[in-house]
Amino acid sequence: MFKPYETNRYFDEMLNPNGQPKDHYKSFHSMLQQFSEEEFKEKHDTAQLNFLRQGITFTVYGEEEGTERTMPFDFVPIIIPAEKWNMIEKGMIQRVEALNLFLEDIYQDQLIVKDGVIPRALIEQNPYYFKQVAGVQIPLKNHIFLAGIDLIRDEHGVYRVLEDNLRNPSGLSYVYQNRFVMRHVYPEFFSEHSLYTLETQVAHLESALLSHKPLNLPEYLEPRAVLLTAGMYNSAYYDHVFLAQQLNIALVEGRDLLVKDHVVYMKTIRGLKRVDIIYRRIDDDFLDPEAFRKDSLLGVPGLLEAYKEGNVSILNGVGNGVADDKAMYAYVPDMIRYYLNEDPIIPNVETFILSDPDQREWVLERLDQLVVKNVGASGGYDMLIGPHASEEQLELFRKKIIESPHQYIAQPTIKLSRAPVYQQGRFYPCHIDLRVFVMKGEKVNVLPGGLSRVALKEGSLVVNSSQGGGGKDTWVLKEETQHA
Fold this sequence. Notes:
8-stranded mixed beta sheet, 14 helices, 4-stranded parallel beta sheet, globular
């Protein structure tokens, strides 16, 4: 079934080096043997059709034949045994707690800077650090309502954090739709596996959302929440619609809201209704044309003043981008030690800060061996993968680094773990990562599993859907079935 399939050079999620399934995959592997080639093709096509019918799309930039695509789905799940998941869960809670303490600190007393742990310039010169919200008191002192932490496994099977997403992490809807399609098209797989379910997780998300009552809202009043979207042309609009429906809150655009006497109101057919919590899915720059970009048509004039007055909560917090910047990423292990007095449970990928002259010189001499990333870019854009780059690409990035060293970081080329996929009528191995979603309110809750993203182009390391990636269902086994 998986031949030819070499596992030696990479860590394989499903198969041992001898080609046999790992213990936690044995039951699933044996069920695969029961399907004929025709059944595989039929079920694969049915799964893709399900996504199309439900309008689950994303935007592909730079494609001539059209920008809207359905999310490619692969039915071979990523299965995580209970003891591994317990470690991931603890590591995610630890990391988000430290990042939140960092955000609260740098917008208040900046003790971590005064103690010399993080360079002041890294904060003050960061385009995502907003002095406008320095000193603002926010509910629960919590800046991170929803985090999306990207994990990879290296060639030794060690989990590492690749990236922190603390502004507007997307993809939660795909986790649910992957599970829905999987249960619908492949019900056989679930009869032999006892998994952590996703059904109760929306309640945790709703509880976390509503726990962010504005400081000036009387205790006896229940807060009214809305989800603020940029509109139907946003690449993650499906995500916005899905979450608004699941959380049972209004989906609004900037034109649906107004600020009066530092209070936010929603326009309705029954008049103005006060809004207390805004789960925003638009970037800081566009939130308020009076405070940020003057040309923004997406935001709400006066919103920042209402926020500063304690009359409305904005989730995730304004200015979170300073903590998920790729240059700041290198200091997260230091944050964990500084704020929590603990060692990181899940390590970073080794990272070189190119504003440091010694590190920059070392990197420039080995550019063809490393990965270089723009600290502000996402989705695989403005990124160099040295071993796969042409001489022209290497020379271009050499010039970019020399001209703007603070704008780039470099990392070793990690041999990302792989897993089997079934595409184009055959099985073959592809690289994967895992986005884990962490919800934070009065309590911290980690969604069991998350969004497994897969680089469906053979040999590609880029898992983003906008550049040819797809998704897999992610199963977390309960203790009693992990060796089934």
